[in-house]
Amino acid sequence: SCSTVLKTLHFITTPLSEEEGNFSLAYIITIHKELEMFVRLLRAIYMPQNIYCIHIDEKSPRDYKTAVQNIVNCFENIFISSKREHVVYAGFSRLQADINCMRDLVNSKVQWNYVINLCGQDFPLKTNKEIIQYIKSKWNGKNITPGIVQPLHVKHRTEVSYREYIHSGVPYVYPAKIRKAQPPHNLTIYFGSAYYILTKDFVEFTLRDARAKALLEWSRDTYSPDEHYWVTLNRLPG
Description:
two-stranded antiparallel ribbon; globular; transmembrane helix; glycosyltransferase
């Protein structure tokens, strides 16, 4: 039962400080395996003033999905993304999973300040309070999505077209012998981490801006687009 979940797993049920209560974080967690590890992560980052979108890989086993759903049902501020992807490593589906959660999060009633994305195998090194104090002190109003102009050794990721295939039941991404067109709007492609801390304003911008939408479409057949998409949009002038 839910009371057992809350009690035995020692979830925090009230904000630990006024500062934290007034600064909500949104989390996107993409998962596909290892339920216990996910629960441990969730318990470590859970705060009642935050909001959590869980993306479960569509190809995860049914009992795994059910178990996650049963945990999520115990919390008003945790939900499973309304649209789920069959996630392929280094494929567009991994980026789409985050975007699906972002759409849900911007439509939620919770007035969150920043969004942080994680995978099920992550674990925090800092407390909720330390995270928000770090954001406020160094990044207030800015995004944390570091990157550099795309280096030569990863240019192939966006120069040829990649396709998602399934071989012996295992999905993977493989290059086709098709050269891609130049990026839309004459954008300079940057390269960085797929993981970020983004402002709500920036997330809303990426969901509606014409350049962002064009870059998203262009990125559909690139390799690991989540490693260039956010960092490139963050470098847009203006």
